[in-house]
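Example record used in the benchmark description.
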Amino acid sequence: MDDIWQAPIGEPLDLAVTAGLPPVPLPDQCHVEQLIWHGDPLTGPLRAHVAARGTHTVTVRIGAGDRIIADVRIRRGPARTPRPHALLRAGLEPGVTLTRQFAVTKEVTTDHVPGADPVLSTPSIIAFMEDTAADILRARFTPATASLGTWIGVRHSGPAYIGQSVTVTAALAEVRGRRYLFDVVATVDGREVGDGQVAQTLISLAG
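Model output (structure tokens):
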């Protein structure tokens, strides 16, 4: 394959992409840091190109036709060993879940579509998801600890109207030091209206 650290951004990689994970062969001394799935099945024939590059990371975009299938972020160096962080009173293992309900009020809706009823806004559904994920951590904070949302990858797929209730479930997917990655899903009366992932990072408030 092309050297992903040198390949021009946007130009196709000289690579036959086939179904399977990871969907690109990894260079030596690298690992997949994050896979962002965009909802379509991973089927061939697929194509790949470098979408973004930083000092230590490269994002390879996988597509089929005019559809984006996934973004794979590759980082130099070995993968870090997952372990609970000392800022929590008790360790957390992937699989821990929490479900909360949120009322849809006028304050969390948008009415930018003329003639249509106000609907839950995308920033609000993301806030519900982040707050649910953070609640899993809050119950285990040591003194002078907090968490911040540091990454979101969320699809807002359906409407919720004033007076309805949104049920949000967050499930811990991965632990990397201070960073906790959660799978999140939102439903209204059993109908899915959003899903994706959010990350929370622990911070110390001690002086």
